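Allow me, if you will, to draw on your knowledge of protein folds for a short while. I am sending you one protein, given as its amino acid sequence and as whole-number tokens for its backbone shapes. Kindly check, if you would, that the fold set down in the tokens agrees with what the sequence suggests. The record follows directly beneath this note:
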Amino acid sequence: LAGVSVGVYLNKVSPNWLIMVLLIVLCGYTGNRTLNTGMKAYAKETQQREQKRREARAEAKARAAGAHGGRKGQDGTDGNSTTPVSDAESLDAKEAEKVPVLDHEVNRAARDGGAKGGDGARR
């Protein structure tokens, strides 16, 4: 209650311009603190997200390398063929959404059954 009483008294004895300047300074200070806190939280979350993405990619590559041994490719050959397979193919649906596959040639080759030349027919 003492803070409220002092605030009411200062509001009555201070000119309006001084109150306005003090409110602007207060809003600027609290806004700056909030912005800095938010930027730090964003940077931390971004770093954690990138770390999880790197771990998921490494795990996907490890699974893909282990899954190629007995797996048949899209062209019906055994897992030792040269048919490129994307990392996301060896994951279940939820994990595959988390791992972006950036190699468009791998995706195209996997979709077309590994044929880069051939008759050019699309399936």
Summary: Confidence is low (pLDDT under 50) at residues 115-123. The chain is about 65% helix and 0% strand. Residues 26 and 71 are 65 Å apart (CA to CA). The helical segments are 2-13, 16-67, 93-98, 104-111.
